[in-house]
Amino acid sequence: MGAVVLAVGGYLTAAALVSNSSDPSEAVRSYLAAIAEGDASTAAQIVDPDASGTDATYLTDDVFGAATERIEVVSVTTTTREGDTAEVTTVMELASQTFTHTFTMTRDAAAYWLLQSGWRPDAPLTVEATVTVRDSISLTGVEQVDLAGTALELVVKEVPGVSADSRSEPVQVYPAVYEVTGPDLGEYFAVAPEELAAIPPTATAELSVAATEALQTALLDAASVQADACVEPGTSVDAVCPLLLRQQDPSTTGVIQAPYNVTFRTDHRFMVDVIFWYRPEGGTSSGTGTTDYTTDLIGTYTVDGDDVTVEFIPWDEL
Hints:
This protein has 318 residues and is an alpha+beta fold. 22% of the residues lie in helices and 41% in strands. The longest helix is centred in the first third of the chain and has 20 residues, at 2-21.
């Protein structure tokens, strides 16, 4: 009987020592070590995202392992502790930025009897990131991007102050830097890749659809044909030609600089700059006395496969 009492007394003494000496920061150190190594599986074993209602779709080894940069832990300090609750404050670095995060810790009462520290953060260290693609150029609507090599579906959302040509999606990720890439949009449009620097508590990555050089060249070529037509007999009076040129004798006009500087607007509209010359009434025929006239041509474009169709807008419709 005495041996049993001693054994029980020794166990209780050991349990009390574990309870009193265990530091909640050790659990946080282990957790952050897994995050710093890109080990999502180990991180989830320490703090289960599902237990706190966190969407774990992208808290995976595939996504986390493909991150281009991960956290560096600067310090981990237990700042408060009372009974089975504590707070641990951490300092980390990511993407040349320093940030802090305080973990709220809870200790499992059963750990006392299992001679384990039992401290666990109440919630995972994640970032609510939003990935957005703006498309006012192709108007095809980018529906999917790749987040660190994993597909991310985007949806149109009505957001006050945000253009309807945007698609976005919120996603929970571990703190790290991820590459976001868009789909192949063919010859005339492209989506430049963007980095998502997921630094708590929130982060954003914005991608935009841009016109390729091939599309800009096609629009400039069409504009050059139209500019030449605006200084030719028979076509200089077309409604798409600037009013000033339509009022001139075509033999007293010409193109100094072909269309340049393509600017895109909404609804497949674009604008180019062009410099004409004209000879005001009384100017000499020798070429002196001409006046430069810088103006714009505005048109719309339609892309169908490899074909680009351009139509210029009459000035009275602008």
